[in-house]
UniProtKB/TrEMBL annotation:
Record GO terms (molecular function): DNA binding; serine-type endopeptidase activity
Organism: Yoonia vestfoldensis
Keywords: DNA-binding, Hydrolase, Protease, Transcription, Transcription regulation
Pfam families: Peptidase_S24
Protein name: Putative HTH-type transcriptional regulator
PROSITE patterns: SPASE_I_1
Lineage: Bacteria, Pseudomonadati, Pseudomonadota, Alphaproteobacteria, Rhodobacterales
Annotated PANTHER family: FELS-1 PROPHAGE TRANSCRIPTIONAL REGULATOR, PTHR40661
Keyword Hydrolase: yes
Annotated ranges, domain Peptidase S24/S26A/S26B/S26C: 15-140
The keyword DNA-binding appears for this protein: yes
GO cellular-component term (any): membrane
GO terms, biological process: proteolysis
Length: 146
């Protein structure tokens, strides 16, 4: 049973009209806020210690991150997490333009990272210099259709 007397504090997370490609790259034209989603503060705290103003929700386009992320899934980014010295799922701008959601891993060369697609049968991993990548944020939550 739900205790209807107890109020749950919520935090709003901005939703943007942006699609990060789970493929070869999406070029966002309009990056503007289209709404917000409310999350219980305790739930957000279990995901991250970041300020809700540092969180953003965007869409995923493509199949390169299957089975982890599917076309039209949404991801929540912690934009305060931009350090690529640890592995994880990140949204990055490749060469300043293409917006990608990819797994980031260690590279064989210093000053580089490996950009990994989970759908390895169709998409090969590539090494990129850190200077060619702008980190938008780390993916900390996903949502999608059933």
């Amino acid at each position: 049973m739900v205790d209807r007397k107890k109020t749950v504090e919520s935090a709003l997370v901005a939703v943007y009209d942006i699609q990060a490609s789970a493929g070869d790259g999406a070029y966002p034209v309009d990056e503007y806020r289209v709404g917000s989603l409310a999350f219980p503060k305790n739930y957000l705290r279990s995901l991250t210690r970041a300020n809700p103003h540092d969180l953003a929700i965007i869409s995923v386009k493509g199949d390169s991150m299957l089975p982890t992320l599917a076309d039209d899934d949404v991801v929540m980014l912690d934009t305060s997490k931009r350090d690529l010295s640890y592995d994880g799922l990140f949204v990055i701008r490749d060469n300043g333009d293409a917006l990608l959601v990819k797994r980031i891993g260690r590279a064989s060369q210093p000053g580089c990272v490996t950009i990994i697609s989970d759908n390895r049968q169709l998409y090969a991993s590539v090494e990129k210099a850190l200077t060619d990548i702008d980190v938008v944020g780390r993916v900390i939550w996903t949502g999608g259709k059933v």
